[in-house]
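Entry 14. Structure prediction run on the chain below.
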Amino acid sequence: MSLINRQINKLIQDKLEYLQDGLNVQIKFDKNFIGFQGHFPDNPVLPGVVMIKTMISMYELYNKKSLTLIQIKQTKFIEPVFDDTLISFFVKSKIDDKSIILQGKVIKEQKIIAKISLIVQEQ
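Output returned:
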């Protein structure tokens, strides 16, 4: 498993909670998080791909199943996430034939700052 995956899993594993209609986690990516390297050196911004990976990792950890990303259906990044910012990820899932649809939101201070829709499959 890559370093970025290990860091994400470590951040979410003890904080992941199942709510009535999905998964939720509140986390902060500190300035030492590997995802900030090169994005951008003088003004670190959390890459969108890290938000996508966090959603997938939430589902994998909760369901104890590995997933493969098949398609990014839709993404909308409304506001950047800087280091040491507390954000919440909320993910709902729906099984459709052989695929799983993950619908997610990233929330900061009760404001939606990203919306992400993915199609994944179990490995």
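Residues 48-63 form the longest helix (16 residues).
Filed with the rest of this week's runs.
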